[in-house]
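User: Hi! Is it possible to get a structure for several chains at once, not just one? Here's what I have:
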Amino acid sequence: MPQGEIVRVRYAPSPTGAPHIGNTHTALFIWLFARHSGGRFIVRIEDTDRERYVPGSLETILEGLRWLGLDWDEGPEVGGPKGPYFQSQRLKIYQQFARHLVETGHAYYCYCSQERLEEMRREQAARKEPPGYDRRCRNLTSKERGEFESQGIVPVVRLKVPLEGKTAFHDLIHGTVTFDNRTLDDMVLLKSDGYPTYHLAVVVDDHLMEITHIMRGDEWVPSVPRHILLYQALGWEPPKFVHLPMLLGPDRSKLAKRHGAASVLGYKANGYLPEAVLNFLAIVGWAYDDKTEIFTRDELIQRFSIQGIGHTPAIFSQEKMDWMNGYYIRQLSIEELARRAMPFLAQAGLIDDKTDVAYLHRVMPLVQERIKKLTEVAGLIDFLFLEKISYDPALLIGKEMDRSATTRALESSLVLLKAQDSFDAVALEAALRPLAGQLGLTPGQLFGTIRVAISGKTVAPPLFESLAVLGRDRMLKRLAQALELTKTLR
Ligand code: GLU
Ligand code: ZN
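Assistant: Yes, the chains can be modeled jointly so their relative placement is included. Here is the combined structure:
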């Protein structure tokens, strides 16, 4: 890249389904490199595979980028000087270059039928030969070609791969990679329906869009020699190559759903914060030093470098991501936490437009220290929103307690709290703690019974803070309700 030239990098997703978290990881690294270098981040939609096209996936891809704040300078919705940015709208360009390659002797028309190619593959398999086109049409005479044409056969265009020699390229992460040309077959560049293959489209677009660094997952390394041959045939200088480490699960197998990996919008739905996902993905496969793990968005942009990218597969740990999400949740202000939790509480049917936001702000401190995901909030604090709670009355009886001890505990608590005039957490604890001893119970036993009575759960946010938020009337009502329930117990 000549001095002073501006970095241009692209994220080139195919709309073939919801983006895997590995795709998002790739997008983030490309975006970070663009922002770090003051360059352009381009999104190009590789939608030429019509069989694998999944409607709606484009929207999902873009929404995932937006959720993480990975803004693009050129591409869908924003356009740009090198468009169109959808490959399906560039067919004429690819057709023109395919024709040019045939005319200059670097490619040729192949008229082989599907049946013939299948037959050929079967025979190769039977002879235990590697599969690959047998180059039958590579040297057709013009008479032979004319015959096929007159039969109305529409050919594909294939690259004339050199029969010997080696093709090498330099990768900023992998170093020099060399392939023996004999391992490459004469790949199709243009299909008979006029659509390009990935190889032709990617080379033409990366060149015309003036991409300076091709960054993508390293599963694409084996395709590069084919691309290099195309660059050579077209007389173009290839960009720099940066093949990013693949994401693996903790067991070192390819990252999959069973490792907890979801699509990026799946993480959104599962209660993760975008800043946590951003930070977490950035430190999978990239390191600034050997210790720093928490980075703000600006710090990531400032410190990101290709040198910091690992050479070995990056291990994706769901546990670590959950830890980091919890960390970011604890960094939020109460108001912000409430704002982020609201969609989840609404989804659980606990709040609506009329819910008092000030009340939400009182509830949030009860959960902030104990959750890792926003999806956990509703289950912990539903009792603070529900008119009536229901639970198994047997839960009221704590460890080594019986029905009469439980009844007594509830009766005495009711009497005590009815007479109480201060209802903040400290005053409530000061009042209730001595009661345990008077009843011959441990504090754990008494508080456990009260906890179930007010929340319906054995595990809930801190008791006295919860009581304080619940307020006098509701707490007395629930204790009375629990006392009623003890009558059904044996
Ligand atoms: N369209 C390819 C994909 O979906 C991108 C390959 C590339 O970046 O060259 O992964
Ligand atoms: Zn052929």
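The chain has a mean pLDDT of 95. The chain is about 45% helix and 10% strand.

User: Great, thank you!
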